[in-house]
Amino acid sequence: MVDPGEVKRILAVVATLLLIGSSSTGTAQAAPVTVVYTPTSGSTVAVGVPVLIAGIAVNGESGDITGVDISFDGGVTWSPTEHHSGSWLHRHTPAEVGPVTYHLRASSSRDISGAYGPYEFFAGGSAAPPALRCPYCTLSLPWLPNRPELDDPDDAAVELGLRLGFDRAGYVAGAAVHRGTYSGPLTVHLWSADGTLLAETVSASATGVSYVRFPARVPVVAGEEYVVSYFAPVGGYASSEDYFSAAVVIAPYVMGRGAGVYSYGGGFPTETWHDSNYWVHPTFELS
């Protein structure tokens, strides 16, 4: 699930593209358009490690998206992505150090777009991280095709979280937790990579999404791993399997394969299950 602020941003971008594309006819019958969600343009990934390229495609009022294709050779050859209901993804493994450039195109039952792009990220090296869109950002993970956010029927006490790093120094100020069926109080934690507890706070009873701030912001170091998690005393959490099957890079956040972690009974979560996502989103502040 994408948080409301990010939905507004994406829809604004899409609406602008649709307006431009339909200006010649004065209708909403423009060619399909695509938006990339991950990796952030200009971000850096590791060589030899699969990365998830993912986003959405729309087609005006019809929503009639039949496919999204990706090209790494300037549009000479195209490969289909996995897609469903407008969301799409492609796993790519950079083979060498340097920029990775690609184009996208989307199709409907009656039209196909031109090539969108070029989009670019970097494999290896030490490129400067991309500029942030906001001085404080709550991670907003996108919908992926055929990976719905479900209410897990598990009723055991469990700690659920997200293992991640940052592409720059800053502060973790809190988190957003997408709830499942459990609506009681939640205890939210931030841990270092070795399991040292760095911060803790309690969310009041709620449904939907709970937003919390830690009593004090916690400084984080670029390139180091952290875990943000929460304790669900009777289960009832939200999850999506086969989500972190490759690295996800949404500046300033960097998540590797198997980033969703858990621990039955509570405590520092380290176990993984089918590359699941437990929908825990930290809030990063630059200063």
From TrEMBL:
Q: Which residues form the DUF4082 domain?
A: 151-280
Q: Which domain of life is it from?
A: Bacteria
Q: Does the keyword Aminoacyl-tRNA synthetase apply?
A: no
> InterPro entries, alphabetically?
DUF4082, Ig_E-set
Secretion signal, residue range per the UniProt entry = 1-30
Gene3D superfamilies documented for this protein? 2.60.40.650
* Keywords for this protein: Signal
Output this protein's name: Uncharacterized protein DUF4082
* Species, as recorded: Saccharothrix saharensis
